[in-house]
UniProtKB/TrEMBL annotation:
Superkingdom of source: Bacteria
Record's keyword annotation contains Membrane: yes
Spans through the membrane: 5-23, 35-53, 87-108, 114-131, 265-285
Protein name, UniProt field: Type II secretion protein F
Domain Type II secretion system protein GspF: 152-283
Organism ancestry: Bacteria, Bacillati, Bacillota, Bacilli, Bacillales
Record has Signal as a keyword: no
Membrane topology, record value: Multi-pass membrane protein
Organism: Gracilibacillus dipsosauri
Keywords of the record: Cell membrane, Membrane, Transmembrane, Transmembrane helix
Major localization listed first in the record, in broad terms: membrane
Cellular component GO terms, alphabetical: plasma membrane
């Protein structure tokens, strides 16, 4: 009981102390960089803890991969350090919430140390799970882009073959899907805005490829940049050949997603089978 009470005071007290130290200095920072990060109510305390212990500097080598994923996933641009800091703050917030919650439950249950142990285990696993979830989001984003890219490339080829320039074709195809919330069209909309503002087409396409962070997009932009000056049949032919390869990759992703969906249904089906078996067998067992 005493150990649980001490752990409770330390964990809850730590959160309160950093809340007091943070004050309102992080309010604007959180508002500008909140994106889809969670547990924002604990963000001031977490950000204060990060700054006080200089975690970003101390862990710079270990969070380099995280920073790269955040940059691609959130299209952060110049905000990469801020978004990375918010991601680390989210992890710290969940850790503090687990430790404080586990210790409170331990005290309420008469000093049961199992709650404390469970909270510590969660606090250790949370960073691993959070980074794993970030990787899963990256994989899904990559698959979504590859799934949509062959259709986009086919439209560009048709418009170029009909006599439009590649810039006009990209702008037209993007504007048709401007309202669609899709990672590919989000990046394309940004690229089209830069093209309309008079930026270099080569520079815009290269920047678009970097922001997507997908090899297939890099191949697409390279094909466009190598052939767009020639235009006409040469570019349309190259895009059609690329589109055929992309359609095959789209089919492979569709098969993979179908297999994953089927595997996720196995466990519920097993539970249903066991439930039906119990319902059918119970009357017979009662007879014996």
């Amino acid at each position: 009981m005493v150990i649980s009470a001490i752990f409770c005071c330390l964990s809850v007290g730590l959160v309160l102390i950093f809340f007091i130290l943070a004050g309102s200095q992080y309010k604007l920072f959180i508002e500008e960089n909140k994106a889809d990060f969670q547990f924002l109510f604990l963000a001031p305390a977490s950000l204060c803890l990060i700054d006080r212990f200089k975690l970003m500097e101390r862990l710079s080598s270990k969070i380099a991969n995280v920073q790269q994923r955040v940059a691609i996933l959130y299209s952060a641009g110049k905000k990469v350090p801020q978004y990375t800091k918010m991601f680390i703050a989210q992890i710290v917030s969940v850790i503090m919430l687990c430790l404080a919650g586990g210790s409170i439950f331990a005290v309420l249950n008469g000093g049961d140390k199992r709650f404390v142990v469970f909270a510590i285990v969660l606090a250790i696993l949370i960073p691993i799970v959070s980074i794993k979830k970030l990787e899963e989001k990256m994989d899904k984003r990559k698959q979504d882009i590859i799934m949509e890219l062959p259709e986009f490339a086919s439209k560009i080829a048709l418009l170029v073959n009909a006599g439009e320039t590649v810039q006009q074709a990209i702008v037209r195809c993007t504007m048709m899907k401007a309202d669609v919330k899709h990672p590919l069209y989000t990046e394309l909309t940004d690229a089209v805005t830069k093209i309309k503002n008079g930026d270099s087409f080569n520079g815009v396409m290269e920047d678009f490829s970097k922001r997507c962070g997908v090899q297939e997009v890099s191949v697409f932009t390279t094909t466009v940049l190598l052939n767009y000056k020639r235009g006409g049949n040469q570019l349309a032919l190259s895009l059609r050949e690329l589109s055929r390869d992309l359609w095959e990759k789209r089919k492979a992703i569709s098969r993979k997603r179908g297999e994953e969906a089927s595997s996720k249904l196995i466990f519920p089906m097993v539970l249903i089978f066991i439930a039906v078996l119990i319902i059918v067998a119970y009357p017979a067992l009662r007879i014996f």
